[in-house]
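Appendix C reproduces, verbatim, an entry submitted by the partner laboratory led by Prof. M.T., so that reviewers can inspect both the input and the predicted structure.
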Amino acid sequence: MTTNTLWAEAGPVPAAGTKATDLAKPASHTLFVQAKPPVTIEEVRYNLQLAVELEHATLPVYLQAAYSLDDAKNGVIANMIIGVAMQEMEHFCQAANILVAVGGHPAIDDPKFVPSYPGGLPKEIGTQPGQEKFIVHLRPFSKDQIKNCFMVIEEPADPVDIKDAGLLRASSDIQDNYRTIGQFYEDIAKALTDLGDGVFSHSADGQVYGMLGITPILGLQDALDAINRIIVEGEGTPTNPTEDGGADMAHYYTYYEIYKGRKIAKGPDGWYFTDETIPYDPTGVADILDDPTQADYPAGSAAAIQSQSFNTYYSNLLKALHQAFNGRPDAINNAIALMFDLKIQAKLLMNTPLNDGSGKFAAPTWQYVP
């Protein structure tokens, strides 16, 4: 999960063979992460807790869009977004495992852990003097949401074959800011390297692994490998947009494909859009509220009841994850079951009319229930 500039307004689907570098990309605001490289083990633990929060903060936003899509009409796009969300969940767990491995305790079952929408990313990441504040919204799927939210979150510092059109940064303190969240992870890796293998427990006790590609963290090299995987799965590398040199695109390029409506493939002299399209039917998107809250639904209404039910499932998921990383690894099984339940509850809610004359439907509010 990384950050960079926005894209030009969505226009016609580019012709087959259009090269990524041929597409105009104007200057715009960039997200920044305040650069406070950790040094002590306490600071590393703090930053790893922040990493867990950052990975989680993307999930409601991505899943809201995915669940708003009609699987019959837009199943390809829905599955692409859910695939990214599942990897964000993997990153969440890997960051939590590293935190456990260095003696920390992930704090997940906490109202403060849950982001508020609309709002910034955790810890005001993205806020920069002289810059427009980056605001994350809970919205149904749209090309605008892909461009102005998802691609901003995921874009790497050095995109493959995509010219950087410039950054609007505050010159007074630019040296004090990260350009990407990938660099935030790199500083965690550097601090762990400096602290050495001795800060690790060399035990998998208390960790969760064995699913979603999640691995135990026994020592320094395991942590460095996990951090590298998080970075590469989000942004690829400066020379390759795929996760590992294979067929699967890194998150930013997955959203790039959705936004432009075509697949990307390597040609003899660079990366190109192919003539393989990604189908999108605008009529297959639920007409749900933007940035809903529980207060939007009248007490006792079907929407209020369904919304409270969704939030209960969501909060129970957070509770199960907290238990899993705080002494009860077996609780991850409950968390996995609740993940599947969330989609069912979300779809029920998105089929519940508001009965306020707007013609819109209810949507998950992703709020914590004690």
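Residues 231 and 238 are 12 Å apart (CA to CA). Additional entries are available on request from the coordinating office.
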